[in-house]
Fold these 2 entries.
Entry 1:
Amino acid sequence: MKKFILFCITILYLLGFVSCKNTPKEEIPAEENTPIENEQKPNQEAPISSNKKVLIAYFSLAENMVNEVDAEASASMSLPGDVTRLAYYIQKYTDGDIFSIHTIKKYPNDFQAVVDENHSESTNPKLEKKVENLDQYDTIFIGYPVWATNVPRAIRTFLEENNLSKKTVVPFCSHNGYGAGSSYSTIKSLSGANTLDGFAILGTQTASAQNSINEWLEKIGIKKATSIVPIELVIGDIILNANLNNTAVAKEFLKLLPQSMRLSRYGDREYYGSIQGSISVEGERKRNFTKGEISYCPANNTFAIWFDKEEQMLGMDIIKIGEITSDYNVLKTLESGIEVLVRKTN
Ligand SMILES: Cc1cc2nc3c(=O)[nH]c(=O)nc-3n(C[C@H](O)[C@H](O)[C@H](O)COP(=O)(O)O)c2cc1C
């Protein structure tokens, strides 16, 4: 009976999820509440001094199914998964590295079959790859969907394979209404680490969770990543101030400045245009954006400024390289085909 109720709630949730994600495929991208449910004591200090020291490891069913991109086959196959979204919100705040936990054996496309498999799993699943150079991180976020009021077994494997006992571990999860369950205690005891207060949210609310995530991170003492290089976007007599972040892609972009670009307007949400020169390094790819963000699209070698409609998901990957720090609402009023000079601030 309990199983049946959980199944019904999940199906209802999944239906809602599909409808809110039914945004049309994007042609050109230039690149994403509930109260926090705490199980642990508030807060120990989070020793984050550099952006390079944060790892966001997460497991999401949507990325671990037999056919993960066939949204027709199962609503729960739609990408991104609920936990994926949360992971990228944390990444946006911390500029940490993302690690998606993939099991070698994929889960079925049918929800009830996954529930059954989770119940019958007697060993922890093997994972596809390991975290490279774990030593470089001192804070590890661990994200997961709550399964049977606890962590999925893939998280147990991850905690077995990675010795986190000297790290600061921060759990975050999404669920269908039953909360974090025993998952925080499991992570604490399996990792043997200093753990900070976790974040738990309904799966249906993950699409608009950036603010809640930011508030939570601030509350538990995680420092916001600092942007390093101030730049200006000069559009006629308008000057927008912005910061480039300290990622490899942003640093490559910086080498190409100053440069003028002709930017087209698209979907009442972005200005984008080709970059003169190329960027050969990689960065954290994502399919969501926030207002004020500046990004690079590797597929099209384009630069973009995002000013509205941040609830939309993109059909192509973008990499965040910075954000506008002044009022960018003026962009809403401009035409397509603007000339923009991008240069370092003196
Ligand atoms: C096998 C399985 C077990 C689940 N068990 C629970 C549960 O105990 N409590 C709950 O609230 N939600 C439960 N859910 C729902 C998921 O936690 C929820 O849909 C989550 O947001 C999915 O995130 P994802 O899309 O990133 O995988 C379960 C889902 C599955 C597939």
Note: The longest strand covers residues 168-175.
Entry 2:
Amino acid sequence: MQRDTACSRVAGADRVRPRRANLLEARLRALEPGDIDSLIRWVNDAAVTLYLSQAVAYPPSGSDGFRWLEELSRSHTDRVFAIETPERRLIGSVGLHAIRWVDRKAELAVMIGERDCWNRGFGSWAVREMLRRGFEEMSLRRIYLRVASDHGAAIRVYRKCGFQPEGVLRKDRYVGRGYADTLMMSVLKEEFAAGESGVRTV
Ligand SMILES: CC(C)(COP(=O)(O)OP(=O)(O)OC[C@H]1O[C@@H](n2cnc3c(N)ncnc32)[C@H](O)[C@@H]1OP(=O)(O)O)[C@@H](O)C(=O)NCCC(=O)NCCS
């Protein structure tokens, strides 16, 4: 697999404050059969899946992967994309699930599976780009998500992208060695548009 030397160098040399990625050339693209090995590796990495939302059931093994991808390509209620660095290295996925076209709403899930690329801005970039597509191209009005209430990095990303907390599901998930609350968050089309243009509505 092609390695992103920039990501690798940062992970080794500057672990505490990773260098921000140049996100101008990052991209979302369609998932391909060649991505399945990476997806399987990520979902079998306990550090990656510790807080993973149940919004999307990723395939646990290679044999499930092709069926999963095929079902995804026919789904009217899921849109999942691969996340690539500017160097065209596959590092994660982001998607909208449980799409309700009449209600114009969907649930967002994101995973940066390559851990050496955490805290470099890719997660925030991918969520923002997914929101842009959801609101501008798919004409959704509300995008929501579920996140473990102690998942600091994810909550920080979602806040930065305009999500607001809208409720807590108490003792809703088993994380590590105990039960944790789930925070529900959402962002509306007009809030996202205002945030992108620098105008705050809240
Ligand atoms: C959560 C996740 C998507 C974040 O992606 P990322 O590429 O690291 O995100 P970014 O680099 O854009 O932003 C991370 C932010 O969280 C902050 N952060 C990191 N660890 C933190 C912590 N423990 N508490 C609070 N903030 C934290 C970073 O400083 C950064 O904020 P800043 O840009 O203001 O400095 C990624 O870690 C991931 O995919 N994890 C595994 C799967 C997962 O948990 N998905 C989310 C399920 S709800």
Note: The chain has seven helices and seven strands.
